[in-house]
């Protein structure tokens, strides 16, 4: 129980540090943000922003479809019921989803199922009828869930999760299987997974720990759909602040601490056979996320001086980069719609009393 509470305090403390950085910036220290020349240049393939929709009093958590999003209208979203908001029928009232107390909502790729969690509990919820299946994340009386880590779907076969002791895969029946035990006092801060495009029984898990070490763990499902690691984790890179796996497993996008008060956004082939390419630099780089088809990469850059801060979207083929917002979101996860045409940017000022919620939706041509 003490270890779970310690991890919870770490997550809250980390969020407080980010908020303090944002609130206390006054132009002292740091360097300017630099968007690098892209690795490939073509005349076509520009990222063109069609429109921006501002949704007041709504905090978006996930996409249910290309036109519907899951969110909440209350600042204390972990205590509020989730609703579905339509972007094409904006005047229709939001409909209840039948889910409460959610910190993370992550739809399966089909989409058929929702993974839903808060700081202590996790479950699968079937979208069609709301049937809930609890995930066994406890060691008897207490939860061992690392509620600060979102985790990731492994295709539609299971869900990668972090506990305070290990990496696990949850089956859709709620049962869990350990695939890697963490080192003493090691804390996972982010975990993602990708299926092998040539073999649906194989997958690769990536996880980042509190020391900025990014590891790769190869694993596979057996005939009974039980996952098992194929070998020990491999250290990929150090001084990592954030990362994201491109769908299909071809490329890693990494935010690396490249110097004192400086981050670089790097593209690195996952097979380690190609050269890493730096695409942007700034004081802080976070919230890196690939679109579902891997054609676009979104990331946030923050500058302690002035200018250059904001949300950027890059065309993965041409390298063309577009600034879509002057305000970098370092607190909440960015989320792409299933068809990759829309990017959700939820915001909430946690330092203000009675803070109002806001979500911006960027629609691309």
From TrEMBL:
Which InterPro entries does the record associate with it?
A: 6-blade_b-propeller_TolB-like, WD40
Pfam families reported in the protein's UniProt record: PD40
Q: Which Gene3D superfamilies match?
A: TolB, C-terminal domain
Q: What is this protein called?
A: TolB protein
């Amino acid at each position: 129980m003490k270890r779970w509470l310690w991890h919870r305090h770490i997550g809250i403390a980390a969020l407080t540090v980010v908020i303090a950085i944002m609130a206390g910036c006054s132009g002292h220290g740091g360097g300017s943000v630099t968007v690098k020349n892209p690795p490939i240049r073509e005349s076509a393939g520009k990222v063109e922003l069609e429109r921006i929709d501002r949704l007041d009093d709504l905090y978006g958590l996930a996409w249910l479809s290309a036109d519907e999003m899951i969110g909440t209208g209350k600042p204390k979203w972990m205590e509020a019921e989730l609703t579905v908001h339509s972007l094409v029928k904006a005047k229709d009232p939001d409909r209840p989803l039948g889910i409460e107390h959610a910190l993370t909502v992550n739809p399966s790729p089909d989409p058929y199922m929702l993974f839903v969690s808060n700081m202590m509990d996790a479950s699968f919820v079937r979208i069609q009828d709301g049937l809930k299946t609890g995930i066994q994340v406890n060691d008897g009386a207490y939860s061992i869930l690392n509620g600060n880590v979102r985790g990731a779907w492994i295709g539609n076969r299971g869900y990668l999760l972090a506990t305070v002791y290990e990496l696990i895969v949850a089956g859709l029946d709620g049962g869990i299987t350990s695939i890697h035990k963490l080192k003493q006092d090691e804390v996972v801060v982010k975990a993602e997974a990708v299926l092998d495009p040539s073999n649906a029984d194989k997958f690769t898990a990536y996880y980042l720990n509190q020391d900025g070490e990014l590891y790769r763990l190869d694993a596979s499902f057996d005939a009974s759909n039980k996952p098992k690691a194929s070998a020990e984790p491999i250290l990929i890179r150090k001084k990592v602040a954030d990362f994201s796996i491109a769908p299909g497993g071809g490329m890693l996008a990494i935010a690396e601490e490249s110097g004192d008060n400086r981050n670089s956004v790097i593209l690195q082939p996952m097979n380690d056979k190609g050269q890493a390419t730096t695409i942007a630099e700034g004081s802080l780089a976070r919230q890196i996320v690939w679109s579902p088809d891997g054609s676009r990469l979104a990331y946030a850059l923050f500058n302690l001086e002035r200018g250059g801060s904001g949300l950027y979207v890059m065309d993965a083929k041409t390298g063309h980069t577009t600034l879509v917002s002057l305000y970098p979101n370092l607190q909440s996860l960015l989320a792409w719609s299933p068809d990759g045409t829309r990017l959700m940017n939820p915001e909430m000022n946690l330092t203000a009393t009675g803070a109002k919620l806001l979500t911006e939706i960027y629609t691309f041509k």
